[in-house]
Amino acid sequence: MSSAFKEWHLIVEALIAGEQLLILRKGGISEGRGGFAPDRAARFWLFPTWFHAQLEKTKAAAARFADSAHASNSSDASIVTLRAFADVVHHAFLSDWEAVARLDAFHLWSPETVRERFDWSKPPGIHVFIVRVHRLASPISLPLTPEMGGCRSWIELPLTFDDRSATPVVDEPTFRERVNAIGL
User: Fold this and answer.
1) What does the domain layout of the chain look like in residue ranges?
2) Is pLDDT of 12 > 60?
3) β strands within the chain, DSSP E
């Protein structure tokens, strides 16, 4: 078993394309009293999710990922395809809105969506992850189960990372340069 991180399909596509290195998260509605657990896994599968308002809650630039998200989401709603996993390179909880706002150029969520997440529940703030994404040589298709549903960030999958051929989506020098630009 290994952890998978549920994220909007458009954002997963941006991460796999190497256009985004950040994940911003407050927590899912079903996270429970303990709230979001940012330290659950140092490596995790990127588990794409779809809901109708993703385009409205992301910047216009995210629209270029909509066709691939719709294609993989509409082909068979009972199957999820994993195309990548991520390693956490850095994590921080930012409680200063100005620090969060400075990250705007590094992600595809709309400013309104980020502010909504920042203000959701107490204390105000948001978890920020810098991740190194690895694209699988062969995608993995899994049947969706009830345990995979719900508004929560983490789920467990019956997979391991052993013997999975994968390549980083961004080369090491470019990755380091972009991490330095983010400045966390």
Assistant:
1) 2-182
2) yes
3) 2-8, 22-25, 43-49, 79-94, 126-143, 154-157, 166-168
